Structure formats: C-alpha cells, structure tokens
Amino acid sequence: MDIFWKVLAGILIAWLSSWITVRASLEKFRTERWWEKQADAYSHLLGVLHDAKEYSSKNLDAEWYDRALSKVDNQELLDRSNAVESEIERIMDVDSFYLSRSTIQRLKKYKASLRKAGTDNSGENNSWEVFLQDTYTATNSCLNDVMDIAKLELNVPEHNKGLLSLALGLLPLRSSSRKA
Fold it and tell me: Please, where are the H alpha helices in the chain?
C-alpha cells in the first residue's frame, strides 16, 4: 500500500506541475500576442502620421524654393493627404481597441490642431505658408508624442528607442562600412 501512495503522489505532482506549466505558457502566449498586436497598431499609426506630413512638407518646399507643383502632383498629394486623414479616423475608431486612451486623446488634439491650422487667435485666416507650417508642426508633434506613448505602452526601455524606430520603419538602416 505504501507504494500506491508514492505512485499516486508522484502522478499528482506531475499532473499539477504540468497543469501549472501549461497555464503559464498560455498566459505568456496571450501576453506576447497582445503586445504584438499593440506594436502593429502603433507601427501602423506612426507610419500613417509620417505619411501625413508629406502634403505640407512638399508644399512648403515648393513655397520656400519657389517651385510650383504641377496640378497633377498637387492633386496626387491632396488625394493621398485625404486618404491619410481618413485612415487616421479609421485608426481612431477601429484600432482604439489596441491603442491607449492617451494615444486616442493625442489624436483628437491633433485633429483639433489641424482644424485651427492657418488661423490666428481671432480666427482669421493667415497665409497659405502659415497653414502649411501649422499643419506640419501639428503632425510632427503628434508623431513624436505618439512615439513616446508607444514606448511607454510597449515597455520599451529608453536605450532601445532607436531600435523601436528602426523596427517601425521610421529610421533608415545604416550600413556599417569601415574605412581601411
């Protein structure tokens, strides 16, 4: 009978340790998958915000260097800009499941800044160039703020911030060529 209890205790311990291991593995898997989905959502948002700068950036370049954009180029930029703004709205609705409240609040602040772009404190419209500068500044500021929020939400250590940007496709890959 003594052997029976030893075998039963061994089976019970083996079953319990297996059950705990499986539960811990499943929890780790769920956590990793959630992190991946959050990282994908932030990566997509950061890419869209980067694309949002293109319209104001190219138009500012044209203004500053006195180079007019062709009607075709301008229409193409405008169409892409509208598509990007629609994508930001979609992200605020759909991806809000994965994005933090502070990210959504920051996007709302960004949209409000875009509505005010090019106007002074009295609500009067300023020049086209001021509108473009305000738009570029609002977009760049939002991009940087969302990047900081993403680092906090994804628990990215401060020393890895360059790696996060590289992983999200915001920094070019540098070749490590040595001079002899």
Answer: 2-64, 71-94, 101-116, 128-153, 161-167
